[in-house]
Automatic annotation (TrEMBL), chain A:
<dbReference type="Pfam" id="PF00528">
    <property type="entry name" value="BPD_transp_1"/>
</dbReference>
<comment type="similarity">
    <text>Belongs to the binding-protein-dependent transport system permease family.</text>
</comment>
<feature type="domain" description="ABC transmembrane type-1">
    <location>
        <begin position="101"/>
        <end position="282"/>
    </location>
</feature>
<keyword id="KW-0472">Membrane</keyword>
<keyword id="KW-1003">Cell membrane</keyword>
<keyword id="KW-0812">Transmembrane</keyword>
<feature type="transmembrane region" description="Helical">
    <location>
        <begin position="139"/>
        <end position="159"/>
    </location>
</feature>
<dbReference type="GO" id="GO:0055085">
    <property type="term" value="P:transmembrane transport"/>
</dbReference>
<feature type="transmembrane region" description="Helical">
    <location>
        <begin position="263"/>
        <end position="282"/>
    </location>
</feature>
TrEMBL record, chain B:
<comment type="similarity">
    <text>Belongs to the ABC transporter superfamily.</text>
</comment>
<feature type="domain" description="ABC transporter">
    <location>
        <begin position="20"/>
        <end position="250"/>
    </location>
</feature>
<dbReference type="InterPro" id="IPR003439">
    <property type="entry name" value="ABC_transporter-like_ATP-bd"/>
</dbReference>
<protein>
    <submittedName>
        <fullName>ATP-binding protein</fullName>
    </submittedName>
</protein>
<keyword id="KW-0547">Nucleotide-binding</keyword>
<dbReference type="InterPro" id="IPR050166">
    <property type="entry name" value="ABC_transporter_ATP-bind"/>
</dbReference>
<dbReference type="InterPro" id="IPR027417">
    <property type="entry name" value="P-loop_NTPase"/>
</dbReference>
<keyword id="KW-0813">Transport</keyword>
<dbReference type="GO" id="GO:0016887">
    <property type="term" value="F:ATP hydrolysis activity"/>
</dbReference>
């Protein structure tokens, strides 16, 4: 370790120990420059990976003359730019791209939000109350293995082709990860914390809200994250089969029109939006909770 | 405890804070039931600092859990100021073996917790919490989160959280400083004595450290193991703060230690007889 001895010595002190007299730089500066170097290295390596894949992609497309089914990265990037700036040449998908994206986001928030509002409190209750757990565990466990996609035909039968069917399958997909995580979290709470809460006068709802909910937050954010990923995937699947709007519809329509550029463009937009929603929803929760009170 | 304690209005209180009558409790262990407490009768007067010592398995923590209201005894009952204990509540302040702080609350919010549950107005709760934190020497770290504190500071926050409850005439402490190193433990004991001298309440303090018991207690109850029961009481009359290096201190410590060894050797001989 490098110690800055200069500040801790009284003025006029004659330094004798040879090794300690002139540290190369202050500890904090050393730390900062080390961090910067590490960060730079990480970015460099990540960028190298991305560039290699893009190059391979480009070479493949050009060398084997596959542009019709594998457009070059440059043409995809151009297309993204064109779409986002509403360049409407050869636009085959009805309303503009923003309408499709907003439609998908609206469905995501509706299905995911409803699932969160129901799954988290219900999971906490089932985790804490044994009687309730014994009642609901078998039914939950028998519905859980049915994949979200398998609900699509039934959803179409019940709600018709359109919005409600998509929101329904998103709900079914998003519900379980949040439920199981909240339940597991509520079960593993240090019993001493619950005892402390009760001894200091918390009971019933206040015990849930003031002790059990905050103590479960790390589990809940994990559940949110898994559910959000699943919900976004299910949006695309649902819209491909049961809707005439949204990014899933764009994908399917691009295939029908044999437009590989538009197809890949839509895929990249899906990736970007998926990342942004995760960042906005889950990171926001984490910033306001565990990041403040947990050891980093 | 020469004369009966006097309360603020000047009349002598005749109802004891705690009265345990014939308390019996068993735990399910390997190969049958463990007799944790056997016919325990105990009366604790107002403003007494009672220390309970004894080897592990003598039922001291079980008894405290019963007083906390977290455990119902299988037989007998414990009266708190004349009324049977129905469950946990803010009429008792508790400190557990681990600090058991709420990680999502800052130091001062932890101390306010009980007051908040009692619906004490916010400003008043904050004032009270600050006051108690000042007494335990943590007035400067009120806005830190528990993970930012040292073990000793966490233990002090736990004590402050219990002490902040004005409604609690009885404080229950289950080896609150057991996990702290010896030097810091002495400092914490001094904080506790200080706090108690300024604001006297009845305290039941469990420890396995005889030195700590002699330093803190008005009266020391040595419990006997298997089954857990009353062993012997010792009175400590020395004024506080006590001198750990005095002859009386050492003598009493020696006496209690000797008695404890006698109890445990009796037990081994019983077990040998049975075998």
């Amino acid at each position: 370790m490098i110690i800055n001895t200069e500040s801790s010595l009284p003025p006029g002190t004659i330094q004798t120990g040879a090794g300690y007299s002139n540290p190369p730089m202050a500890f904090s500066d050393y730390e900062r420059s080390k961090k910067r170097k590490e960060q730079f290295r990480r970015i460099r390596r990540g960028a190298t990976g991305v560039i290699v894949v893009l190059l391979l992609w480009h070479v493949m497309a050009v060398a084997y003359n596959l542009q019709l089914i594998l457009p070059t990265p440059i043409s995809v990037i151009q297309r993204i730019y064109g779409m986002l700036t509403l360049d409407n040449t050869r636009w085959l998908y009805g309303p503009n791209v923003y309408v499709h994206l907003l439609e998908s986001l609206r469905r995501l928030l509706l299905g995911f939000g409803l699932a969160a509002i129901l799954a988290i409190p219900f999971g906490l209750l089932v985790g804490r109350i044994r009687t309730l757990r014994e009642y609901v565990e078998p039914i939950i466990k028998s519905i859980y293995p049915i994949p979200g996609i398998a609900w699509i035909p039934l959803a179409i039968l019940w709600f018709g082709l359109g919005d409600t069917a998509v929101v329904f399958v998103v709900f079914m997909t998003a519900f379980f990860p949040m439920f199981f995580n909240a339940e597991a979290g509520a079960r593993q709470i240090n019993p001493l914390l619950v005892d402390a809460g009760r001894c200091f006068g918390a009971k019933g709802l206040s015990l849930f809200y003031r002790v059990i909910l905050p103590a479960t937050v790390p589990y809940i954010t994990t559940g949110l994250r898994i559910s959000l990923g699943g919900a976004w995937k299910m949006i695309v699947a649902g819209e491909m089969l049961a809707s005439s709007q949204g990014v899933g519809f764009m994908l399917m329509e691009a295939r029908f029109q044999f437009r590989a550029v538009d197809l890949m463009t839509a895929m990249i937009l899906i990736s970007i939006i998926g990342y942004l929603t995760e960042y906005l929803i889950v990171r926001l929760v984490e910033k306001r909770t565990t990041e403040k009170w947990e050891v980093r | 405890m020469g004369q009966p304690p006097i309360n603020s209005t000047g009349e002598a209180r005749t109802i004891p804070v705690i009265e345990a009558r014939g308390v019996d409790h068993y735990y399910e262990g390997q190969g049958g039931w463990n007799h944790a407490l056997s016919n325990l009768n105990l009366t604790i007067p107002h403003e007494e600092f009672l220390c309970i010592v004894g080897p592990s398995g003598c039922g001291k923590s079980t008894f405290l859990k019963i007083v906390m209201g977290l455990l119902k005894p299988m037989r007998g009952q414990v009266l708190l100021e004349g009324k049977p204990i129905e469950g946990p509540g803010t009429d008792r302040g508790v400190v557990f073996q681990e600090p058991a702080l709420f990680a999502w609350r800052t130091v001062i919010e932890n101390v306010e917790f009980g007051l908040q549950m009692q619906k004490v107005p916010k400003a008043e709760a904050r004032r009270r919490a600050q006051e108690v934190l000042d007494v335990v020497g943590l007035g400067h770290v009120t806005d830190l989160y528990p993970y930012q504190l040292s073990g000793g500071m966490r233990a002090r926050v736990a004590v402050a959280r219990a002490w902040a409850l004005r409604s609690a005439n009885l404080l229950l402490m289950d080896e609150p400083f057991a996990a702290i190193d010896a030097i810091n433990r002495m400092a914490l004991q001094d904080y506790l004595v200080d706090t108690w001298m300024k604001d006297r309440r009845t305290v039941i303090y469990i420890t396995h450290d005889i030195d700590e018991a002699v330093y803190l207690g008005d009266r020391i109850l040595l419990m006997r193991p298997s089954p857990g029961r009353i062993g012997r009481f010792f009175e400590v009359n020395a004024p506080r703060p006590r001198d750990r290096s005095s002859a009386e201190f050492a003598e009493l410590k020696g006496l209690i230690t000797e008695e404890m060894h006698r109890f445990s050797s009796e037990n081994t001989s019983i077990q040998e007889d049975a075998a």
